[in-house]
Design a protein that fits this description.
heterodimer, A: about 400 residues, mainly beta, Porin, 16-stranded antiparallel barrel, B: about 150 residues, alpha/beta, D-Maltodextrin-Binding Protein, domain 2, two-stranded parallel ribbon
Chain lengths: ~400, ~150
């Protein structure tokens, strides 16, 4: 769901900032402990990654001034985990992400949690997690910022879109998880409840601009996921969903009333892995419901839709060829974008409400710790582009190509 | 020397070469090993997969499980995952990465080579790993895979 213009500000809520600082101090103390102490190094692990990308587009802006070539895509993560007891794991990750005009690289706590796996046998496992938890949505959301785990230079934008990225990335709350092993394979279930951070990006994406009033998450949001994987890892099936509500309290100067936005976001995922090739398909829908805002917004109810099919072929153990076809629509009942364009009085052309693209790419694992990727994308439609990076809808070019390079190191 | 005899000798040499190739250490015959403290006689394939997927953090007696692996591109690791676990190395890596970078698990400890593997498993209580059979000595116990 993305409509008009985004802004540059990304105000964090004070509570979130305080939590970030607290966790940073905790991580530092853990770090200091390891260099000083002995004996618990086995249980303490430090890992991280550094990724640098380059993007060149024929038209439009993607992750910076890409029409002239952009290096404004850097990801840096440091991750600490400590197994306090066989069944208790503490872990946290700091992430700095620079992505064009959307994210400026200021570090944030990606996750910080306590995981208590209170029952675990080969047949089944049960546990609970508390803290800031990555949302397991689809096959890639929970590690979407780790280049080694992505299916391409970027996560498929039609499903894992960046404009409301922070709303779906993580939640502060509790999660229950279970595993059940059967003869056919392993089932994994997650159910989480928590609050989702809302920043200015979200207000711009859903309301189209920064009003005087405030948009905030309302009550608890829910995340659920069920996954099945055969024992040999050949088949993976998953269904995941998030349900959340946003409350807008209007300021006196706002032309719209107070209201709320309900949304449900769900993904069905299917993957088949053979020795040399694999096929992945994911399908997403997001019904969005605007209430009580008044006529300007209440008409905007829509069902966002996105899907892709990706094939990959490993022609040497370190060299993989990737191909992907994706489609995404602002409203599945208006795939041509005409009705939505009409709602903006024609300011946003129809092609800003859909996008279809083909990607061809190659991944080279130079060493187990260093990876390179190159990709070319042919796109029709500009729906996945950030409004913040492309503030004038009329200037977007409907047919455009993108070439990208990425190098990533991990330890 | 007759042509027929030369051919026979040639065929014998090829057979010997082939035998040599297939018995190269570290390629075919990987077996599960554990620290002597691990009170388990053998493991089923699925339990072994769960252990190496870092999803079983403790042994039945409550001791912490310590998993050791060779680097992803080591021939011994590839042979172990394909022939013993019947998983491709990148499937294991995918599972480890997902847990590690979402904070829900840890990665196994990577050792540089077979000698380091033997030493790590011998000296770490609760350790599990793998080695080619001829590398194993009495400092570790072999865990048969129950099929």
């Amino acid at each position: 769901m993305r409509r008009l213009v985004n802004s540059r500000c990304s105000a964090e809520r004070p509570a979130r900032r305080l939590a970030s600082r607290g966790v940073a101090i905790l991580l530092f103390m853990l770090w200091a402990q390891t260099s000083a102490g002995e004996g618990w190094n086995d249980d303490l692990q430090i890992h991280g990654f550094l990724t640098q990308g380059f993007v060149h587009t024929t038209d439009n802006r993607f992750f910076g001034g890409s029409d002239d070539g952009s290096f404004d895509f850097t990801e840096l993560g440091v991750n600490l985990s400590y197994r306090a007891a066989p069944s208790v794991l503490l872990s946290g990750q700091l992430l700095s992400r620079r992505a064009g005009d959307m994210y400026d690289g200021s570090p944030d706590v990606d996750f910080a949690l306590v995981d208590w796996n209170f029952s675990n046998t080969p047949g089944s496992s049960l546990g609970v997690v508390a803290g800031r938890i990555k949302n397991s949505l689809g096959l890639y959301n929970d590690t979407r910022d780790v280049a080694f785990t992505r299916p391409g230079v970027f996560v498929p934008q039609q499903i894992y879109f960046d404009s409301v990225r922070n709303l779906l990335l993580s939640a502060d709350g509790l999660q229950l998880y279970a595993r059940r092993s059967t003869d056919a394979g392993n089932w994994a279930f997650n159910l989480g409840a928590g609050t989702n951070p809302v920043d200015k990006n979200v207000e711009y994406a859903y309301l189209g601009r920064d009003y005087g009033g405030d948009l905030d998450s309302s009550g608890v949001s829910w995340i659920a996921r069920a996954e099945f994987e055969t024992h040999d890892g050949a088949w993976r099936l998953a269904f995941s969903a998030a349900k959340a509500k946003l409350d807008f309290s209007a300021a006196a100067s706002d032309p719209i009333g107070s209201g709320n936005i309900d949304f449900l976001y769900w993904i069905a995922s299917l993957q088949y892995n053979a020795e040399r090739w694999s096929l992945t398909a994911e399908y997403m829908e997001e019904p969005v419901d605007f209430d009580d805002f008044g006529p300007l917004y209440d008409e905007r109810d829509s069902t966002v839709q996105g899907y892709y099919l990706q094939g990959s072929y490993l022609f040497r153990h370190d060299l993989e060829f990737v191909m992907r076809y994706s489609e995404g629509f602002g409203d599945k009942h208006d795939r041509g974008g005409r009705k939505q364009s009409g709602q903006t009085f024609g300011i946003a052309p129809p092609h800003t409400f859909y996008q279809k693209d083909v990607i061809l790419g190659i991944r080279w694992d130079v060493t187990p710790r260093f990876m390179l990727r190159a990709e070319h994308q042919w796109a029709r439609g500009t729906w996945t582009l950030s409004n913040r990076e492309n503030p004038l809808p009329a200037e977007r070019v409907k047919d455009w190509n993108m070439f990208s390079l990425l190098g990533s190191y991990r330890f | 020397m007759s042509v027929a005899k030369t051919n026979k000798q040639l065929r014998a040499s090829v057979a010997w070469l082939g035998l040599l190739f297939f018995s190269l250490p570290g390629l075919a015959d990987q077996v599960l090993i554990a620290n002597a403290s691990v009170g388990v006689d053998g493991l089923s394939l699925n339990t072994t997969r769960l252990l190496f997927s870092m999803q079983l953090p403790q042994w039945p007696d409550g001791t912490a499980v310590r998993v050791f692996v060779l680097p992803d591109d080591h021939p011994g690791h590839r042979a172990f995952s394909k022939d013993l676990l019947r998983l491709y190395p990148r499937q294991l890596r995918r599972v480890w990465d997902r847990q590690l970078y979402s904070g829900t698990g840890q990665a196994p400890q990577t050792v540089a080579d077979a000698a380091a593997m033997l030493e790590a498993v011998a000296q770490t209580p609760g350790a599990i790993g793998y080695l080619s059979r001829e590398m194993i000595d009495e400092t570790v116990s072999e865990l048969p895979l129950q099929r």
